[in-house]
Amino acid sequence: MSADGPNDEWTDEVIEFLSSNIRKLDDNSGWDHVFISAYQMGCMALIGLGQAYEEDARVYRIENPQIPKTLPRWDDVCFAVLVVARQNGLINYRYKDRSSAAAHVQLKNFQVQIKNRLPEPYPNLQPKYGLGYAFARDELLSVLSALGLIEKDQWAARAETVLWRISPKEWTLDFETNPRFQNAINHAVEQMPDRIRDEIENMINITDEDVDAATVRMENEIKVLREKYGPQLRAPNSIDAKKVRRSLEFQRSNNLDWIFYRNWRLDTGWLSEAEAARALDIFHDPLAQAMKREVIALLYPNAASR
What we know:
The chain has 306 residues and is mostly helical. Helix content is 46%, strand content 10%.
C-alpha cells in the first residue's frame, strides 16, 4: 500500500469534510479545536493540506490556499477523517450482531444488551479483511470512497491497517497476533535507525542524576508556590525519590509512544526523516503503542518505562 493511497484525487473531498465538521471560530476565520483530540488531528490535516496555519492554539484559514506539492501521509489523513467522523456521530461501529455500543451497558464484570430500543440504521459497511460492521452517514461515505477505504458497501484492503490504528472497541481487533504485525516487530528491531535507537536509549535509561535533577526541579516549583500561596498550599515537605522515579518512568513511557507515533508505520517500518516530516502528529494510536511495547520488551526487557 502506498503511503499516498490509491491516487492523489482525495484532497478536495477531505478538505471539504474537515472544514465542515470542525468547530468554526465565531468570525468564520478558521477553526477552534477546543483541545478535543479528534478536532486537533483534523486541524493538523487541514494545515498539512495547505488550508490553514496555527496561532495561539487556534487554526486560521489561509487566503487563496493551495494544495502543497508534498502531501501529508494519506494514512494519517485517513485517521484524522475517521476520528473527526466518530466525534461528530457520522460513523457508528457495530458488534458482530450488528448492534452498536449504545445498545449495551458495560457493568463491572460483564456487559448487558438493552432490548426494545428504537431500531438502529442497518450497517451500510459490511465486514471484510477482518474489519467489522459499521454505519456511515452519506457525507462520510463519499470521503471514504475518495480515500479508497471502501469499495461499494465493504471495507477495502487498504483500510485494514488504518482501522487497526483506530481499533474500535466494538470490533475487538486482535492485530497483535496477525503475521503482518509479528513480522513488523522483527523489522522494527533489526532496521532501527541509529537516530531512533539513540532517542529510545535516552528515554529508557533513568539515572540517579535524572532523579536528583527532577527532585530539585520539583522542590523549586514547590518553593515558588509556597511564596505565592503561603500556608494555604498543600504540598509535601519533602520529595520521595521513589515517587520521582515513578513519575519519570511515566513521562518517559509517554515520550516513547511519541517516538513511534512520529517515526513508525506498519506498512513502511521506520520513516526516513523526510517521510517523518510528512507524518501528522497522530496520538492515541493503539497500533503504534502495541509496537512500542513489543520492541522495547525485546530490546530492554528490564525497562520500567516500557
